Amino acid sequence: MTPDQMRRDAVTVEIGYAVVTGALLAAAVFCLVASPVLLLEPSRAVQRGLLVAASSAAGLAFAVRAVRVLWRFGRRHPRRGRPDEGPHGSAYRAEGTAPRRGGGCAGPGR
């Protein structure tokens, strides 16, 4: 297995982990916020408000969890450039040619 394939597999596993744990957290948050609807007998308007709040909180919890997991994964495994890229992203330099001096674009007369 190539390092590139291993990296893709690791990213795939991490995305799956972020989605599953985000969904579990969202379900728990929804149940927690919506529990007064089952335990108490609030009016129809309060029930609707609690369910909207529960849905919003669950969606936010999912998003925060997924972003946090993926952000931490990205910081632990920084993405490396291609081996043939230079420090400024130049894709290829012909073999045997020296880098330009002057640190920038070649203007007229250079």
TrEMBL record:
Q: Does the keyword Transcription apply?
A: no
A Pfam family annotated for this chain is DUF6332
Membrane-crossing segments per the record: 15-38, 50-71
UniProt key word Repeat: no
Q: Which parts of the sequence are annotated with region: Disordered?
A: 77-110
Compositional bias segments (type: Gly residues): 101-110
Q: Which UniProt keywords apply?
A: Membrane, Transmembrane, Transmembrane helix
- Source taxon at top rank: Bacteria
The protein here is known as DUF6332 family protein
Q: Which organism is it from?
A: Streptomyces changanensis
